[in-house]
Design a protein that fits this description.
This protein is an all-beta fold. The protein contains two helices and 43 strands. 2% of the residues lie in helices and 44% in strands. The strands form twelve sheets. Strands 29, 32, 34, 35, 36, 39, 41, 42 and 43 form a nine-stranded antiparallel sheet that branches. A six-stranded mixed sheet has the order 11-13-14-15-16-12, with no helix packed on it.
Length: 586
C-alpha cells in the first residue's frame, strides 16, 4: 500500500500541546512541516500523516526576587542600610531567592562587603541583586549596607591614685583602650587644677581614643605631703651683740602648699640686760597644712656692760670713807675706772658706804669706848660699798681697809685756866686722899653751886696723859649749867669737836657722870674711874661732828643724886684723828 504524501490531510494544532506556563511565540516565528509516512503495525500497514510545527516560546514575565536578607527584611525593603560590624571583618551578603514563571527557581548573589579602610569613620556601600530568567527578563534590587565604625571601649584603672604635694601634678590615670577585642594600655590626663593640700580630692581625667572620641572620668586622688617646709637661706645666724635686738625679723619658707612667712619677735630666756648680758632666743616655726613643721632658732648672746665689784684705792682718812673704785667696760668699748672721789659730784654720789648686814657700826672700825693706849690706831674698818650704775649694772662688795684713825681718851678739865690746879687739882691721879679703884688720868668737876643758876665752860682735852694738857690737844668744850629747883638740874652741853692741826676731830662716844660724890662708887665703897660706870653713855657709830646737850635730874640715872650741897660732873669721851695728824709727831 502506498501512501500519498500529497494527500490532503488537515491536521489542526492543539494548543494543549504547548507548555501551559509559556506563551506561544509570535506567528512569524511559526512554521509547519507536514510529513505522511507509512507505518506498519501488526495489524497491517497504514498511512500516518505527521505535521511537525516548530515555534519559539516567548517569555515576557519578570522573575520574582525575594526582598529581604535574613533578620534584615524590614531594613532592606524600606531602604534602611544593613549594618555591617567592622570588627567582624569582610561581610558576604547571603544570596536572594529568585522565582520565575517558566524557569526553575534560582538564587541571586553579590560580591562581599570589604571592611578594610578607615575604622573610625565607617562608610556606606550597596549591592545590586539581579533576577535574570534568560529571556531578558530581569528584576534588579539594590540593598544598602552601612559599615559601622570599629567598636572602641576605654576602661580606667581601678587602682588607688596618690599624688605628692611637692610634685605639683596629679598622676595620670591608666586606661585600657579596646578596639575590636584588641587591648592597648595608655594613660588619661588630669584636667583639674592641682590641689596643694592634703587629703582626698576628686580629679577629672580625659582621654581621646584612637578615633578621636573623648572620654571623661572622675577619680578620687589622695594628695599627701610628708616633706617639711624649706626655710629660705640665709638663715639668721647666732650672734654676739651688745644690745638685745628690738626689731622683729620676718623669715619665709617654701612649701608645696605655698609660701609660709612668720615674723619672730625676740623671746627672752632669762632676762638679758645691758648689764648682766645673757642668752636670748627667737624661734620661727613653720607648719604647713599637712602638719609638717620646721623651726629655726637663733641664739643671741649679749655681752653686757661689765662692772667690777668695788675695791679700795689708796689710804683711808679718819672719818672719811675710803676712796673706792669700779672698773667699767661697756660692751664693745674700752675699760674705764670710776672712783668715789670723782670731780663730778653726780659720779661720786654713785658710791654709798653702809654697815655690813648683820653687824653694828661699833663692831669694827670704831674707836673703842676706852682705848687702852692713847693714840692707838684702829686696826680696820669694814663697810659694804654699793655702786649705783646708771644702766642698772649695780655692784656691791664688803671692803675691809685700815680706818686711818688713831683714838684718844678725852676728859673735860676742872680748871679751864690751869687744868692742873684744883681742890686739890681734881685729877684722879693726884687725889691721893681718897680711895680710888683703877686710878687713871682724868678730872672731876665740882662741887657745883646750886645757890643760883650758874654756867661754867670746861675745855675737853684728848691724849692729856698724867693730866698734862700739854701732851694732849684741845678737842672740844663742855658747858655745865646748874639749875636750882625741885629737883635740882644739871645741863651738860657738848660742843662740836674742834679742828686739830687743820683736821676735824670726831667724837665716837661720851660717858657722863653727875652725882654728889666725885666719882661713882663700887660695891666695895671705893670710887670708880671706869667710864662704863658713869651712868650716861652716848655713842656715835659714824663719828659725829655735831654738838649735843643732856640734862640730868635726880631721876635721870640711878647714880645721879643731886642735892643742894653740891654736885660733881665727870665728862669722858673718845675722839679720833687721822694717824697722820701732826699731833702724833710731837
Amino acid at each position: 500500500m502506498e501512501c500519498d504524501p500529497d494527500a490532503a490531510l488537515e491536521l489542526q494544532l492543539d494548543e494543549n500541546c504547548l507548555p501551559s506556563t509559556c506563551n506561544i511565540c509570535a506567528e512569524e516565528g511559526l512554521f509547519d512541516n507536514l510529513n505522511v509516512q507509512k507505518e506498519t503495525t501488526e495489524a497491517g500497514s497504514v498511512c500516518v500523516a505527521r505535521r511537525t510545527v516548530e515555534f519559539m516560546l516567548v517569555d515576557e514575565i519578570i522573575p520574582v526576587i525575594a526582598c529581604g536578607l535574613p533578620d534584615y527584611t524590614a531594613a532592606q525593603c524600606s531602604g534602611v542600610p544593613v549594618p555591617v560590624d567592622y570588627c567582624n571583618g569582610d561581610y558576604t551578603p547571603p544570596p536572594l531567592d529568585v522565582t520565575d514563571n517558566c524557569q526553575a527557581d534560582s538564587e541571586s548573589t553579590v560580591s562581599p562587603i570589604v571592611v578594610t579602610g578607615d575604622k573610625c569613620a565607617g562608610r556606606d556601600d550597596s549591592r545590586v541583586y539581579i533576577a535574570d530568567d534568560g529571556c531578558n527578563n530581569a528584576d534588579p534590587i539594590t540593598i544598602n549596607f552601612r559599615v559601622n565604625p570599629a567598636t572602641i571601649t576605654v576602661s580606667p584603672s581601678e587602682d588607688a591614685l596618690t599624688a605628692e604635694c611637692k610634685d605639683g601634678n596629679f598622676p595620670s590615670l591608666p586606661v585600657t583602650e579596646t578596639v575590636c577585642s584588641t587591648d592597648t594600655e595608655d594613660n588619661a590626663d588630669p584636667v583639674s587644677d592641682f590641689v596643694t593640700s592634703c587629703g582626698e580630692t576628686t580629679v577629672e581625667y580625659t582621654y581621646t581614643d584612637e578615633c578621636g572620641v573623648p572620654h571623661t572620668f572622675n577619680r578620687t586622688v589622695m594628695v599627701t605631703d610628708n616633706d617639711d617646709p624649706v626655710i629660705r637661706t640665709p638663715l639668721p645666724a647666732d650672734a654676739d651683740v651688745c644690745d638685745a635686738p628690738t626689731e622683729p625679723v620676718e623669715l619665709c619658707a617654701d612649701d608645696c602648699q605655698g609660701e609660709l612667712c612668720e615674723v619672730a619677735s625676740p623671746i627672752a630666756q632669762g632676762t638679758p640686760t645691758v648689764c648682766a648680758g645673757g642668752s636670748y632666743t627667737r624661734t620661727w616655726t613653720f607648719v604647713d597644712g599637712c602638719g609638717n613643721d620646721k623651726t629655726h632658732t637663733q641664739t643671741i648672746t649679749i655681752a653686757g656692760k661689765q662692772v667690777s665689784a668695788p675695791y679700795a684705792s689708796g689710804e683711808a682718812s679718819c672719818g672719811e670713807d675710803p676712796v673706792v673704785c669700779v672698773d667699767v667696760t661697756p660692751c664693745g668699748e674700752s675699760e674705764t675706772t670710776i672712783c668715789s672721789n670723782d670731780a663730778d659730784p653726780v659720779v661720786a654720789s654713785r658710791f654709798t658706804f653702809n654697815t655690813p648686814s648683820g653687824t653694828t657700826a661699833t663692831t669694827s672700825g670704831i674707836c673703842s669706848e676706852d682705848p687702852q693706849t692713847d693714840g692707838a690706831a684702829e686696826p680696820s674698818v669694814t663697810k659694804t660699798v654699793h655702786y649705783d650704775d646708771p644702766n642698772g649694772c649695780d655692784t656691791e662688795a664688803d671692803i675691809t681697809f685700815p680706818s686711818g684713825c688713831c683714838c684718844e681718851t678725852d676728859f673735860a678739865v676742872f680748871n679751864p685756866t690751869n687744868p692742873n690746879v684744883g681742890i686739890p687739882s681734881q685729877c684722879f691721879i693726884q687725889m691721893t686722899n681718897v680711895n680710888i679703884q683703877g686710878r687713871r688720868w682724868g678730872w672731876t668737876i665740882g662741887p657745883l653751886n646750886f645757890a643760883t643758876e650758874t654756867t661754867t665752860t670746861h675745855p675737853i682735852y684728848g691724849g692729856a696723859g698724867q693730866c698734862d694738857t700739854l701732851k694732849g690737844y684741845l678737842v672740844g668744850e663742855a658747858t655745865i649749867k646748874t639749875m636750882p629747883g625741885t629737883p635740882n638740874k644739871v645741863e651738860v652741853s657738848i660742843s662740836a669737836p674742834f679742828e686739830v692741826n687743820s683736821e676735824q676731830a670726831r667724837f665716837t662716844v661720851f660717858h657722863i657722870f653727875v652725882g654728889n660724890d666725885i666719882l661713882p662708887t663700887g660695891n666695895n665703897g671705893a670710887f670708880i674711874t671706869s667710864p662704863g660706870q658713869y651712868g650716861f653713855t652716848k655713842t656715835f657709830p659714824t663719828r659725829t661732828t655735831d654738838a649735843f646737850t643732856k640734862t640730868f635730874t635726880r631721876t635721870t640715872k640711878t647714880r645721879v643724886n643731886i642735892n643742894s650741897t653740891g654736885a660733881y660732873v665727870v665728862i669722858h669721851a673718845v675722839s679720833a684723828l687721822s694717824c697722820s695728824n701732826e699731833h702724833y709727831d710731837r
